Amino acid sequence: MHSDDAARLSPGEPHRISAGLRTRFAEEFGRDPDGVWFAPGRANLNGEHVDFHGGRCLPMALAHGTYVAAAPRQDGLLRLRTLDPELDDGVQTLSLAAVAAVMSDDGAEAGEPATITDVHTIVPGQISGWTWYVAGTLWALARVGEEAPELAVPEDFGADLLICSTLPIGGGLSSSAALECSAMLAFVALATPLGAANRGTALDAALDDELRARLAAACMRAEVEVVGAGTGGLDQTVSLRGRAGHVVSLDCRDFTVERLPMDGLLAEHAFLAIDTRQAHWLGDGQFDDRRADSEAAMRLLGVDRLRDLLPEHPEPGDVDAALARFDTLVGGDELEGCDELTGCAEALEGRSTAACRRRLRHALTEMLRSEQLDRILTDEELEPTTAAAEVGRILTAGHASMRDDAEVSFPAADALVGTVSEVGALGARLIGGGFGGSVLALVPRDREDAVIGAAARVCQEQGFTAPRFLHVEPSAPARVVG
Ligand code: ADP
Ligand code: MG
To answer: pTM to 2 decimals?
Structure first.
């Protein structure tokens, strides 16, 4: 079987997509949009399930992403439509005031999904789940604006938005953050004094890294507090703060970033994302369950975040030492006192000790892999082929950890990782939260077609959904398209 061009997802040509979206917007809302804003999805080289533990993540912004055409309103209403065929249900209407009411009064506590029934009673018309990502983003921007006058949102602000994406939705490439971050730019442009003072593409320059970090934190609040997903900020950070040709090395202890150039490595090699088309849904509880296991281990070990168990420059022995400490704490014989045993039972809250240990091992080895990759990618002396071999090896080790310790892999991902490695990929792993999503492979450029062909074939032979392929080109962050 030949690799099928139809199975390749192209990022498209931004200005052409923008022009098409403007036309559709005018048809839908009866007026021209004020602009079109774009935010990319991401592929994470390493660092899954560790952002909320202060670990390092190594994401790249994709050329694929989400486009929002928008124009302001003065009646506090959001009127939203997505052109994604699976989610499009016509124009959805909701009000920021209603979101604010749900969040403050009977409120969703952090991490719990907001109850949408209240909005139904206040706002005429149907709303569906995806609109909460957008409404949550405006709600979170309004909170930022209370502290930062240049980002203040007037009470009566509203907007019409038309949304389209070149990303798989729910494919582990962060369409959710791309939606939040593109909507965020539209809202900043249309609602705030900063947007008024920096019309059009001037906004890109006005949004320095500090402001982008602030907006990323707000987008994360939208996803955690309004939508109720357990995201740790990695996705939003790279979407707003990535750089073309670079991997972002993000220290999730304080959200500082370094951008590591990839031109050496990518001269002869390329990253390929394989969308398994098994959508993962973070909201279905499994991701949260894995996170809860690791947090139980964290409490047992008496730290606020698992990264604090490792030194600044960790080595494998440091991971072993932390695991040994866990074993000591749960192995009754070696306990120093009963108090500690009681504390242990409380910390794990009835969760399986073995499962908590596996989550702990995933988090610690994943953090170690990130530090190792960071060292490889900053080592200017290293030959690109040697660096590529090392990166590939660490990718595959990361997959084993996702499969055996995080236990978030699934048969199609395991088959794809095995197959692509057999036909020339230097390494591959599941990326994203797991339970579906995408596999990221590092391939020699001259083997890319062969890898795509083999990946398509193994899915067909084993009865998995036909995958789709995205060429991963580390790309520029969220921006004004025009
Ligand atoms: P991922 O971020 O890996 O793609 P998530 O489950 O985190 O997967 O986010 C997917 C959800 O985000 C969708 O179910 C939908 O609610 C929302 N979403 C993402 N992109 C769009 C879009 N273009 N239009 C409407 N909703 C979207
Ligand atoms: Mg997501």
So the answer is: 0.91
